[in-house]
């Protein structure tokens, strides 16, 4: 402990002893009020004075160390930002180089009649409703040059197989350093099996390592410079409370839809939202440690000459009651944010998430004097996101067509309008345009449907945009681009069930659309890959279809001979209506190799791992890089991730982007 802290502690103790009441609360409302046990008689015992100086110094030192945690967060953010933008600039330079090389090669080698001219194969994305992903009675067949049969036996258990199943690709000869690099990349990419009994999916090893690093940083700042003596239990519990409050700005930033972390690091809102949950879970643990520690300190560890009153006196103290209110509010936030609760009662989760956090902030503001700057910072973030941006600058009202698709349990929401060339503002460049100005592949929006009743007017539900992204009007020509927006909605309970009932008797609905939000990292990965593989499970086609369309109709000048493979796994034959036959045929004519196995309800799950392994082995001989995007249920995502991990470990140039279902 440094001399300045000890000197401050000594001055603070002298001020306490010279105050009229001799009470801690006059000087230390953040800690002294929590115990409210200072001797009201003058303290002259040297040992007691030494103890008080030590505990005050530990408290002050703990405040300083815990507050430095946000410096660690900022340093980590700076590193992630540097890595992201270095990779982004490299990717853009590579794309420019590939475009130039392709243009030079086109000038040097005239187009031959037997090869399709990729620059002239563009197909208009404008058309009628039926040309968007829509109902179709035609059957879909696999495209040409697809990998071998990908249907698994019905009794095949993917959880009991090795990383890649029975067919492993041949290993590429590697040097020592490349072997180490591939092994590390493969291990970071690998996703372990779900936790037994509760069947909770685990993230990839890389994500787990990052989360463990975050927890380790918290533990370090909690324990460093502290004391483990029993009589200093109060200091340990106090630090847990302070670690809770220093994490609050990060928690609220990660939850915001418009925030700088997404722009700086390139991570999508979905990815940041997953980390937001881990931060929230850790904070609830710290709140539990703080509350239990304070209770145990009063019962067992507080020295007799500082203790005042019994346990009921302690629990009835106003400051303790405020702390209990904050603790209960945040713990209720935790339990109502669990995946099982969100999936069954999403509307209740949304309402409680707003109400409980407001209540918790009020309790915390009154309970912990030192927390007030952090509470105010969180309130500013929350209000800026909810009241300024989400209800104003990025929200739009649209009149949308609504119809029920062939399976009877899926809806298509669609709208269209013209996009004109406009000058992009600074806000638009940093946080992205509103939906009226267009969107990018894989973007999602939040929709509100006031027509469904008063309970739905304040609810916003996320959906991925299932239609192709519109173009950007050229400067000066005055010709607009036409935007066709389509949202694929699976009816479950609550909002989606009410929306289904509404669609059965109404052809249109008025929506408030907030967004778009998303990331271009997956698209840029595919743009710089000679081989693009896209795997969709069920409604995951809403994620991968816009990517495929972008690659073959707008970005084919980068790799004119790019190989694109699309695997779409469906549960029922009626789900084929989610993507129109016209669009399937358009993609086939553009050269996309499409594989749609028989429905899993009829023949079982497909052998996705062997599908990926075959492609990796086929193109590895030419040294081509393969980029893979997968969007589907957790089991499919894990299978695809681990198939890529095995390919990477064996020396293949494979990159992966996983888009997870759920929020």
TrEMBL record:
InterPro entries from the UniProt entry: FAD-bd_8 (IPR013112), FAD-bd_FR_type (IPR017927), Fe3_Rdtase_TM_dom (IPR013130), Fe_red_NAD-bd_6 (IPR013121), Ferric/Cupric_Reductase (IPR051410), FNR_nucleotide-bd (IPR039261)
Keyword Disulfide bond: no
Subcellular localization, as worded in the UniProt entry: Membrane
Keyword entries, A-Z: Electron transport, Glycoprotein, Ion transport, Membrane, Oxidoreductase, Transmembrane, Transmembrane helix, Transport
Membrane topology note: Multi-pass membrane protein
Entry's Gene Ontology cellular component terms: plasma membrane
Organism domain of life: Eukaryota
Low complexity bias (residue ranges): 133-148
Compositional bias ranges of the Basic and acidic residues kind: 123-132
Residues covered by the FAD-binding FR-type domain: 406-523
Keyword presence, Glycoprotein: yes
Transmembrane segments: 67-87, 206-224, 236-255, 282-301, 313-333, 345-368
GO molecular function terms noted in the UniProt entry: ferric-chelate reductase activity
Pfam family, one: Ferric_reduct
Region of interest (Disordered), residue spans: 100-156
GO terms of biological process kind: copper ion import; intracellular iron ion homeostasis; iron ion transport
Cross-referenced PANTHER family: FERRIC REDUCTASE TRANSMEMBRANE COMPONENT 3-RELATED, FERRIC/CUPRIC REDUCTASE TRANSMEMBRANE COMPONENT
The family this protein is said to belong to: Belongs to the ferric reductase (FRE) family.
Protein name: FAD-binding FR-type domain-containing protein
Species assigned in the record: Pestalotiopsis fici (strain W106-1 / CGMCC3.15140)
């Amino acid at each position: 402990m440094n001399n300045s802290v000890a000197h401050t502690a000594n001055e603070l103790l002298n001020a306490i002893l010279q105050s009229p009441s001799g009470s801690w609360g006059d000087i230390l409302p953040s800690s002294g009020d929590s115990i409210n046990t200072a001797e009201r008689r003058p303290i002259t015992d040297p040992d007691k004075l030494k103890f008080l100086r030590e505990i005050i110094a530990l408290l002050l030192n703990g405040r300083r160390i815990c507050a430095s945690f946000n410096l660690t967060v900022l340093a980590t953010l700076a590193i992630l930002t540097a890595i992201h933008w270095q990779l982004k600039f490299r990717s853009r330079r590579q794309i420019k180089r590939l475009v130039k090389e392709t243009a030079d090669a086109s000038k040097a080698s005239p187009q031959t009649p037997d090869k399709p001219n990729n620059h002239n194969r563009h197909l208009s994305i404008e058309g009628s409703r039926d040309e968007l992903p829509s109902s179709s009675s035609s059957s879909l067949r696999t495209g040409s040059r697809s990998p071998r049969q990908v249907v698994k036996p019905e009794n095949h258990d993917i959880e009991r197989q090795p990383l890649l199943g029975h067919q492993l690709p041949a290993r590429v000869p590697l040097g020592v350093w490349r072997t180490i690099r591939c092994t590390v990349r493969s291990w970071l990419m690998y996703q372990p099996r779900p936790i037994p009994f509760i069947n909770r999916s685990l993230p990839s090893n890389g994500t787990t390592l990052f989360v463990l690093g975050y927890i380790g940083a918290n533990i370090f700042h909690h324990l460093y410079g502290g004391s483990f003596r029993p009589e200093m239990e109060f200091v340990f519990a106090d630090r847990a409370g302070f670690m809770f409050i220093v994490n609050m700005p990060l928690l609220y930033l990660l939850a915001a839809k418009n925030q700088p972390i997404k722009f700086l690091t390139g991570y999508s809102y979905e990815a940041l939202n997953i980390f937001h949950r881990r931060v929230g879970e850790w904070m609830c643990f710290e709140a539990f440690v703080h509350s239990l520690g304070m209770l145990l300190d009063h019962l067992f560890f507080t020295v007799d000459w500082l203790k005042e009153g019994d346990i009921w006196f302690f629990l009835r103290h106003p400051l303790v009651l405020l702390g209990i209110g904050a603790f209960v509010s945040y713990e209720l936030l935790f339990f109502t944010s669990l995946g099982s609760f969100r999936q069954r009662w999403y509307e209740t989760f949304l309402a409680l998430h707003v109400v409980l956090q407001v209540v918790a902030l009020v309790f915390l503001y009154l309970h912990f004097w030192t927390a007030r700057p952090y509470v105010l910072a969180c309130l500013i973030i929350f209000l800026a996101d909810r009241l300024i941006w989400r209800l104003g600058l990025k929200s739009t009202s649209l009149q949308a067509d609504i119809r029920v698709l062939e399976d009877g349990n899926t809806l298509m929401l669609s709208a269209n309008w013209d996009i004109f060339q406009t000058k992009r503002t600074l806000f638009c460049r940093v946080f992205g345009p509103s939906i009226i100005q267009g969107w990018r592949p894989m973007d999602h929006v939040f929709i509100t449907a006031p027509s469904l009743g008063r309970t739905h007017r304040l609810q916003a539900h996320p959906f991925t945009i299932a239609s192709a992204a519109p173009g950007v009007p050229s400067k000066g020509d005055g010709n607009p681009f036409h935007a066709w927006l389509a949202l694929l909605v699976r009816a479950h309970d609550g909002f989606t069930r009410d929306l289904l009932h509404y669609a059965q008797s109404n052809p249109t609905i008025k929506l408030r659309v907030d967004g778009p939000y998303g990331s271009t990292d997956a698209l840029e990965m595919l743009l710089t890959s000679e081989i693009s593989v896209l795997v969709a499970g069920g409604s995951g086609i809403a994620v991968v279809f816009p990517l495929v369309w972008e690659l073959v109709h707008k970005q084919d000048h980068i790799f004119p001979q790019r190989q694109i493979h699309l695997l779409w796994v469906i549960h029922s034959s009626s789900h084929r209506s989610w993507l129109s036959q016209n669009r399937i045929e358009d993609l086939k004519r553009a050269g996309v190799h499409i594989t749609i196995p028989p429905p899993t309800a009829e023949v079982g799950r497909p052998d996705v791992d062997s599908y990926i392994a075959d492609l990796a082995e086929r193109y590895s001989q030419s040294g081509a890089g393969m980029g893979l995007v997968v969007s589907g249920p957790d089991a499919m995502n894990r299978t695809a991730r681990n198939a890529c991990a095995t390919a990477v470990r064996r020396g293949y140039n494979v990159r992966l982007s996983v888009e997870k279902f759920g929020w």
